[in-house]
Specification:
alpha/beta; six-stranded mixed β-sheet; 11% strand
Length: 449
């Protein structure tokens, strides 16, 4: 591969991830060689190599393949040693500060994670409103702001959005974002190097301190002690603290009671699991960002709805699934359809399936159309029974991982071709019959509640 090809890849990455992230993570990289499906890239240090591999590995591999290389894996050469990187769908930067005077290792907030790119729905509207209030940079109204929720619900996105907004509105403020594990690393390093005064000065001189994934302080007594004193020093100076975790303060085991008490003295906000509308909105927003990254890829109607229904536990997994579909479609030159999604994402769909049963779907459809379950499963072919039966077949195909023969056995031992015909018929009708489309949506919501 020529240097021009590599520069084109870097330019494409800059367009996709923004100038700030590009300068911090992609610009320092150099292409070395590629063989046997492994591309070797030079990185300035192990931290950069590890972070780039986890955060941007999938995108780099995609662009390398677009340039004609057959690559499945990245490896980073760092001062004579090699660090193999396995791409992941998401990762968090170690630290971010809006002040150029921050110590080595601090980076700019992720430009992808702004309030403009955060999709708001009922499950996260309170957290979004609280984050927006803090991001105004005015007088401290609640301290700390504590955001908690499961993986992939938007905690880190909101943290970066606050940092980004503050850097725009209040450039005079020293804002530091850091993950809890990096706080631990900095603390241990300061002890080892006998630089505790530098450590204390660095963290206690900020105007806004943001600590992500505070649950990682569990069981680390010495680090908790230092965090407690840092917390108190900042609160005494009326400085803003924003903390996130995967659970409420009182539920974090092996965290000192005085820290729990401190964390609960501000505003504690729960980011609830996403609903269908929010997931669909997130997919539509993500689709917009892929227009430049995957030019020419077409998504068939119903694909985004399919993903929003089937992948409900984790937004990162949901976004990763859409990214995988776009990458595959671009590489093979095909339109993304529901059938492709079912094949390409079979592993994700199996993991995300909440084990909905065919019997559960049959009962719900019978109740919806006010017919007896025995009649729907029986041999009668009258329209009043055939259409609800086909609707139930379609829902079984969409909402379970059962094969067509398995579904057929549950519908009065019908042949798999009968199930296939019913599924296709409903696929046709939902495009032209608004009543069928409404029935499908109502039934899906009822089944997934």
């Amino acid at each position: 591969m020529t240097q021009a090809n590599w520069e084109q890849i870097k330019a494409d990455m800059r367009s996709a991830i923004g100038a700030g992230n590009y300068k911090s993570w992609i610009e320092p990289l150099s292409f070395v060689t590629a063989s046997e499906g492994v591309a070797r890239v030079s990185a300035p240090n192990p931290f950069v190599g590890d972070y780039v591999g986890k955060t941007y590995g999938d995108q780099i591999i995609y662009h390398l393949n677009r340039q004609g290389l057959s690559v499945q894996r990245l490896a980073f050469d760092v001062e004579g040693s090699a660090v193999t990187a396995k791409p992941a769908t998401a990762a968090q930067p170690a630290a971010a500060s809006t002040k150029s005077s921050a110590q080595s290792g601090d980076a700019q907030p992720d430009q992808r994670f702004t309030f403009d790119t955060f999709v708001v729905g009922k499950p996260n509207e309170l957290a979004h409103a609280a984050a927006k209030r803090v991001a105004e940079g005015g007088p401290t109204t609640f301290n700390p702001l504590f955001l908690y929720g499961g993986v992939g619900l938007g905690k880190t996105h909101l943290m970066h959005a606050i940092a980004h907004e503050l850097s725009e509105k209040r450039p005079d403020l020293n804002v530091l974002y850091i993950s809890a594990d990096q706080f631990i690393y900095r603390f241990i390093s300061a002890l080892r190097d006998r630089k505790m005064m530098d450590f204390k000065q660095h963290f206690r001189s900020v105007d806004v301190l943001m600590v992500d994934d505070i649950q990682f302080l569990e069981g680390k007594d010495s680090t908790q002690e230092e965090f407690f004193h840092t917390f108190n020093a900042l609160v005494d100076q009326n400085k803003q603290l924003i903390i996130s975790a995967d659970r409420a303060p009182g539920e974090i085991r092996d965290l000192s009671e005085r820290i729990k008490s401190r964390l609960q003295c501000g505003l504690v906000v729960d980011l609830h699991p996403t609903d269908f509308e929010l997931r669909l909105g997130i997919l539509h927003a993500k689709q917009e960002t892929y227009l430049n990254v995957y030019p020419g890829v077409e998504i068939a109607p119903g694909v985004l709805e399919f993903l929003a229904h089937r992948i409900s536990s984790n937004v990162r997994v949901l976004e990763g699934a859409l990214n995988r579909l776009y990458a595959l479609a671009s590489l093979v030159g095909r339109k993304v359809t529901v059938e492709m999604a079912q094949d390409c994402l079979s592993d994700i769909l199996r993991a995300s399936d909440r084990k909905m049963t065919i019997e559960e779907i049959q009962r719900k459809v019978s109740e919806h159309y006010d017919i007896r379950l025995s009649d729907m499963l029986g041999p009668k072919r009258t329209r009043s029974l055939a259409r609800p039966r086909q609707v139930a077949m379609w829902l079984c195909k969409q909402l379970t991982s059962r094969s067509l023969p398995e579904i057929g056995r549950k519908f009065g031992k019908r042949d798999h071709t009968t199930i296939m015909h019913g599924v296709r018929k409903i696929d046709e009708l939902r495009q032209s019959d608004s009543q069928i489309a409404d029935d499908l949506e109502l039934l899906r919501r009822a089944l997934e509640d």
